[in-house]
Design brief:
By secondary structure, the chain is of the alpha/beta class. Helix content is 35%, strand content 11%. The chain is built from 14 helices and 13 strands. Strands 2-1-5-6-7-12-11 form a seven-stranded parallel beta sheet, with helices on both faces. A two-stranded antiparallel ribbon has the order 3-4. A two-stranded parallel ribbon has the order 8-13. A hairpin with a 2-residue loop joins strand 9 and strand 10. Helix 3 packs across helix 5 and helix 8 packs across helix 9. It is globular and about 55 Å long. The termini are far apart.
């Protein structure tokens, strides 16, 4: 129970192989969803994958382990772990290494600029064979990405690097450059589905920085003293105090900076107009009535929901449209990266191969709940599984239609 509560607290703080329909290699004797492309689940801030020894699954949370339930339906899926507080760039590099079975390379230029080691964990083998290669039927082996919260920024950054590469890394490392930074691989990802993802940042970090009450207490007590008091009351962000979070947000190479509005704009500039062949879906979440928490939001999170729902800061670009929220992410931020092509999918059941186009964000109907409930926190598997089954069935049908 202590472990579950700690995961709940973390989440409450904002937390490849193409398999043709007839392929025997990953064929599933399942009643419903036959896998075409594998599904990769990308966790959010302070999260973890199913490759850890945690007794609780991030995907499925308190309702149980989601991925095994999807596997029983015939879905080939994988949930790798990344740095729980890493920047979108670093998380993308880790995700690439996990999927290719290689050593994490953060880039010579990037690591020098931000003062950390160039290389990270080594993955001995890829989870899917021959990701990015062409099979005997001239079909490219791809993956689908399903990303929660800050995992959305990591997934978008991965796609952008696969597509465009990184000029600074190629210039500095030459032949020693990671294949991730050479570009030309944008079509390796068939779809990206973002769940409660702060595409445009979260006002919560602005509140912590400019709120007169918080700032006044911090000035009176000092940030370290305030952190100590809040920590004793159970208020931390991924184990970090408020002062530590704000200091980390200013380093510009952490998830905390990328979650600020300026940080999100910087990420969006690097990821703008993702791969022309990739299908894009966003599921915003709202647990309020125009900023006032409702029963759709877990009672524990009402203070955060109320704080975000009553905050505006015109000088920072936060107006009344930012009031609806899921307790960590503003609903408007989770719709689509501002300035990119998008359309509202008012009737999701009508989304078919004939009317779906790649490189356009399809904003799905807003999910009622909070930031954790969309991954099963405070929900049963019976409540959570159908949501993911529907997502996967739609994408699998689309990929079968595209490949024939």
């Amino acid at each position: 129970m202590k472990r579950i509560l700690s995961i709940a607290a973390a989440l409450a703080l904002c937390g490849a192989v193409l398999l043709l329909p007839g392929c025997d290699l990953f064929k599933r004797k399942a009643p419903r969803v036959p896998t075409t492309y594998p599904f990769v689940f990308v966790h959010g801030l302070n999260g973890f994958g199913d490759d850890t020894e945690s007794p609780v699954s991030y995907w499925g949370a308190t309702g149980g382990a989601l991925l095994p339930a999807l596997e029983e339906q015939g879905t080939l899926c994988y949930a790798p772990s990344g740095n729980p507080m890493g920047s979108a760039w670093d998380r993308a590099c880790e995700l690439y290494a996990a999927l290719t079975g290689t050593r994490v390379d953060y880039g010579e230029a990037h690591s020098a600029a931000y003062g950390h080691e160039r290389y990270g964990k080594t993955y001995d083998a890829p989870p899917f064979t021959d990701w990015g290669t062409v099979d005997e039927n001239d079909n490219l082996r791809k993956v689908n990405l399903i990303a929660h919260s800050f995992g959305g920024a990591a997934a978008r950054m991965l796609c952008a690097l696969l597509q465009n590469g990184a000029a600074a890394e190629k210039a500095l490392s030459g032949a020693g450059c990671s294949p991730l930074f050479t570009g030309g691989k944008g079509d390796w990802v068939f779809s990206v589905t973002c769940l409660a993802a702060p595409h445009n940042g979260t006002s919560l970090l602005t509140i912590l920085d400019v709120n007169p009450i918080i700032s006044g207490i911090a000035s009176l007590l000092g940030r370290d003293s305030m952190d100590s008091i809040l920590s004793k009351l159970g208020f931390t962000w991924g184990g970090m105090g408020i002062g530590e979070v704000l200091r980390a947000a200013k380093t510009m190479d952490t998830a905390y900076y990328d979650l600020t509005l300026p940080g999100a704009k910087a990420v969006n500039a690097l990821t703008r107009n993702l791969c022309p062949d990739t299908y894009l879906f966003s599921y915003p979440v709202d647990g309020t009535d125009n900023g006032k928490p409702t029963d759709d939001m877990t009672a524990l999170y009402h203070p955060l929901g109320w704080l975000m729902g009553n905050f505006t800061s015109p000088e920072n670009g936060i107006d009344d449209a930012w009031k609806p929220n899921d307790c960590l992410v503003n609903t408007i931020s989770a719709t689509y990266p501002f300035g990119e092509p998008h359309t509202e999918a008012v009737y999701p059941n009508a989304l078919t191969h004939e009317n779906l186009k790649p490189a356009i964000w399809y904003v799905m109907p807003t999910v009622r709940g909070d930031h954790g409930s969309i991954i099963g926190l405070g929900r049963t598997m019976e409540q959570t599984l159908p949501f993911y089954t529907e997502i996967i069935a739609r994408i699998d049908a689309l990929s079968r239609a595209v490949t024939g």
